[in-house]
Structure formats: structure tokens, C-alpha cells
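Entry 14. Structure prediction run on the chain below.
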Amino acid sequence: MAAADQSELTFEQAMERLDSIVSRLENGDVPLETAIELFQEGMKLSQLCGGKLEQVEKKIELLIETDQGFQKKPFTEVNEDKGE
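Output returned:
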């Protein structure tokens, strides 16, 4: 799959393709060259999915109830919020 084609995939499509690649690689009956190509494609899909998740996280805002009412708070990972 070409890089331009991958960037047009939705998150769900990329995850389905990644799942398919993992299944083929786990099966173990693909030639070495094919396995390397599948691995490389899988890494690119993994990066694509990670990037799409980061974009969504930036859009998410949490509403926190305070004494003054609800306030918007940018989304942060749970560990970041607790200082861990």
C-alpha cells in the first residue's frame, strides 16, 4: 500500500489493515521478504494511527465542575494529570 494511500485511511481502516498484517505475521508462513514488507507497512500504519489519536486528544476538552460552575480543561493523559 502506497504512503499516499495510507494517509487517506480512516483510523478504523488503518487498524483493520494493521490487524490483518499482525495475523499474517503471527501465522508465520510468509516468505522473509514479504514478512519484512508487511512489518514495514505495519510500522507506518502504527505511526499513522498514533498520529490520528494525538490529533483527537488535542481536540478533547474535559469539563470540570468547580465552585464557580463548569470549566474547560485541556485533555491530558491520566498520568500527566497526577504528576506521575
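The chain has a mean pLDDT of 83.
Filed with the rest of this week's runs.
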